[in-house]
């Protein structure tokens, strides 16, 4: 009898959760990458460095081969867009800075999402958008730097061959 009650409760929960989900369940058609970086440096230093790097790579400031355009910036978050040199691909990039209490360092959540409907497997393009900014700014060589991501959080991560 207990088994029957347990099975009934599980079945009712399943039906209830399916009823709450809109059909068809939306499938993401945008390639994306989410990664987490840890630093032993204060967030204010990191956000300032990232902001300066994005601004230095702005095509409106005379950099012909640059592809990053600042959208908004606060001490806690930076939003930018990246466009390929041929203008055919565009991605939205966000960096969110959160202080770590125990170490006095900073946790940076970085995300790049393709704006067009593209293949979900982007050969690491979205990962490289994030990593190239990190690398060019030298932050990947900071003391205490650690990166956490994988293929589930960052499609194409294993295929990425970043050039910066």
- What is the count of distinct domains? 1
Largest sheet: 6 strands, antiparallel
Distance between the termini: 64 Å
Q: What's the CATH C level? A: Alpha Beta
The CATH topology corresponds to TATA-Binding Protein
- Extract low-pLDDT stretches: 2-27
Integer-rounded radius of gyration: 20 Å
β-strand number = 6
Q: Structural class, from helix and strand content? A: alpha+beta
Cross-sheet strand order for the largest sheet: 2-3-4-5-1-6
Second rung of CATH, namely the architecture: 2-Layer Sandwich
Question: What is the share of helical residues?
Answer: 25-40%
What pattern of helices and strands is seen along the backbone? HEHEEEEHE
Give a quick set of tags describing it.
single chain, 164 residues, alpha+beta, TATA-Binding Protein, 6-stranded antiparallel β-sheet, disordered N terminus
Q: Could you describe the 3D structure shown?
A:
This protein has helices at 2-20, 43-56, 125-136; strands at 32-39, 68-73, 77-83, 90-99, 106-114, 146-148. With 164 residues, it is of the alpha+beta class. It has one domain (30-159): Kinase associated domain 1, KA1 (TATA-Binding Protein). The model is unreliable at 2-27 (pLDDT under 50).
Quick structural overview:
This protein is 27% helix and 26% strand. By secondary structure, it is α+β, with helices and mostly antiparallel strands. A six-stranded antiparallel sheet has the order 2-3-4-5-1-6.
């Amino acid at each position: 009898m207990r088994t029957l009650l347990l099975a009934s409760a599980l079945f009712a929960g399943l039906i209830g959760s399916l009823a709450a989900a809109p059909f068809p369940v939306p499938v993401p058609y945008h390639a994306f990458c989410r990664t987490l970086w840890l630093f032993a440096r204060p967030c204010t230093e990191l956000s300032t460095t990232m902001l300066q790097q994005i601004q230095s790579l702005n095509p409106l400031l005379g950099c012909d081969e640059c592809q990053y355009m600042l959208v908004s910036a606060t001490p806690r978050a930076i939003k930018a867009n990246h466009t390929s040199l041929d203008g055919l691909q565009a991605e939205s990039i966000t960096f969110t800075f959160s202080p770590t209490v125990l170490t006095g360092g900073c946790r940076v959540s970085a995300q790049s999402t393709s704006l067009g409907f593209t293949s979900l497997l982007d050969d690491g393009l979205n990962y490289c958008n994030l990593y190239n900014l990190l690398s060019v700014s030298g932050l990947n060589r900071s003391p205490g730097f650690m990166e956490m991501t994988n293929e589930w959080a960052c499609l194409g991560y294993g295929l990425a061959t970043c050039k910066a």
